[in-house]
Amino acid sequence: MLIIGIAGGTGSGKTTVVNKIINSLPAGEVAVMPQDSYYKDSSHIPPEDRSKINFDEPNAIEWTLLVDHLKQLREGRTIQMPTYSYLTCTRQEETVEVKPADVVIVEGILVLTDPVLRDMLDIKVFVDADPDDRLIRVIARDCIERGRTPEIVINRYQDVLKPMHMQYIEPSKRYADLIVPQGGSNIVAINLLTDYIESRLHQGKLRGLAATHLA
Q: Rounded CA gap, 28 and 16, in Å?
């Protein structure tokens, strides 16, 4: 199993990179674990206070559960990944079944900030993008998918997203094995990444065959 961590600022193009990796490999070879699925449950907090939660700091994530699920996948066990609603800011009753796969991608803005998770990653990727481009994508996404007004999104960007990016996300770039500039539009970097993944998988399968013959 090859475990890949893909981090980067909000709106940097991480999902685009993940999708291009998935599309470059045979169906069923990639399992994706979004960091956002592991936000701590906020159902015990009054609804009017949930909008004040800072989702862009490491403390917002239940890292122990994410790490435990990743260990289970590595041991060949199927997990029930939690789901999270941005509309209610609560963890949902529904879960998503994730089976072990040749490639497991852990994707999210804070993926490279947790030292325990970081040590489990075989490849660490940071998707970089211009702040203005990221802001435009965040406005478009949050207005359409999360029912927020442009004013709310911009205020949140200035008050929370930008300072948290500078405090936690940008510094985590130094842990990356590969930095992808220009986000999901950098075809050369993405192709290099997918070629490397395919070569690692091929080497692993060859070692597996050799071990089988020796046995």
A: 18
